Amino acid sequence: MGDLVFIFASACVINNFTLALFLGLCPFFGVTGRLDTAFRLGLANIFVLVITSLSAWALNTYVLIYAPYLRLISFIVVIASTVQFVEMLIKKLSPGLFRALGIFLPLITTNCAILGLALFQTSRGYSLVEGLVYALGAGVGLTLALVIMAGLREENELAAIPRVVRGTAMSFFVAGILSMAFMGFAGLFSQS
Amino acid sequence: MASSSKKSAPTEPTLWDEGVKGIWRENPVFIAVLGLCPAMAVTNSLINGVVMGAATTFVLVGASLFVSLLRHVIPKPVRISIYIIIIATFVTIVDFALAAYMPAAHRELGAFIALIVVNCLILGRQEAFASRNKVGPSLADAVGMSLGFTLALVMIGGIREVLGSGTLGGVPVFGADPSLPSEGVAVFEPWVIMVLPPGGFLTLGVLLTIFAYLKNASAERKKQEMAASPDSARRS
Fold first, then answer.
1. Do B208 and A169 touch (CB under 8 A)?
2. CB within 8 A of B136, min separation 6: which ones?
3. pTM to 2 decimal places
């Protein structure tokens, strides 16, 4: 149990996927213009990460022991098609949920956070439960980073920022400071 | 495909133009802000930047060659999946080659070699360029874009290594142990923050600011020249 808590906290804040490992930066800078959109993108990310964790576990256990050189190709193809399949399922079963998350799903299927999770989970040899907790932690961490970033950028819209730093450069400075703040979490478990 | 090449026939860009545009004018990292994950994750030293740049170059050039050759064969609806499979094949080759011949670099870069598959720069060039152009221009475009990407990685990696560890390419630039005081004063105290994650964001932020400033300054100068000589402005 303690291990699972550690895995969750580690993926969520200490080794935050976006701010400490630089995974999933494209949506981090691309889609964080508005708070509401960023939050829904985060939820879609959690959803895809959990599916990824399940698919990667199944592939590692049943397929890749026979053909390890197919690791990358099979991860990508299986994750992309599983997400597409679940997307169709949701569209049929819960149109409301589909409207909220649907447009983001194709966008994040081939995101580095998704493939990164599959690769890290494999290299650390996580079991099914550990993998799922890891995926949840990573997803919550991504959502946290996206929401904080979107909130800060909404505030920045109103601030008097010199013309040369406005836009992308300013986003990088904000991200750098956020990343410093998240480094503070590194001591979270060493004390106890 | 045939129509697009015909359309651009009057101002047919040369191979040289296709190659050069990626290095600076359409630099993938500084201008298009693509491929950020590897651009920051592995650039805490110059060497890492060079290895990552070389690996990306191999994948991009190989994938562009194949996509361009197969552009009439690949069915439109499933094209993205096919691009990804082609890219993943080349990444697997690089991954295994590095693990065999440069195990130290492979360990250092870790999962980020495998993550070249999802570098949006590579997929972007396949969709935007290689799938619509002949083999020659596609290769030129791929080489130029890769050089631009490598240049960006080397710049970011160099800056972060010099400021963060006081070395460049593993060679100390401020004397053997810069944090030791020489003649009473420390020559240089490494800024540890630069090799940590925040340093990546801040370095790129500073670089983008400098580029924006230079661009503004040159636009301003052009405007003043126009104002100074209204005749030439009217004529043009």
1. yes
2. B15
3. 0.84
